[in-house]
Amino acid sequence: YDGHCDLHVGITNSRGVVYNYDQEGVHRAESGWEECISIPLVQPDMLELLQQWDNLLEEFSLEEAWLPHRYEEQQHNCYTFALAFVNRVRQGRGWEPLSKAQFTERFLIPHTREASRYLTLHQELAHRDFYIVPLPEQEQE
User: Domain named MKRN2 opposite strand protein-like C-terminal: which ranges (predicted)?
Assistant: First the structure.
């Protein structure tokens, strides 16, 4: 990723199938997302929600709102799909919905900043000759 194009967003079920929305409707992808940024949305102690997650996601993805003809690149897109699902889950738990700005600031920006630092470092290392020498105390451990 070079930072000059939009990112595509999806939501995974418990088996790692990525539900994502575009101009062709909802897709369920078992591959093609190997180089994505994964952002955990559910805490491990939310066992009840984890058990319902797959059914909630499948039911949500079948709604009329996500038919192909409803897609609109700027206003009704993959990000809208993901945020609407997150807000549906939040609503079911009695929590306030998140705005696009809140969702972006709370969940996306911290993870994309970290990924950006990693990618920058990777690009620098890939274009320079280097080698790593362990420190003496590391060699003995």
Answer: 1-125
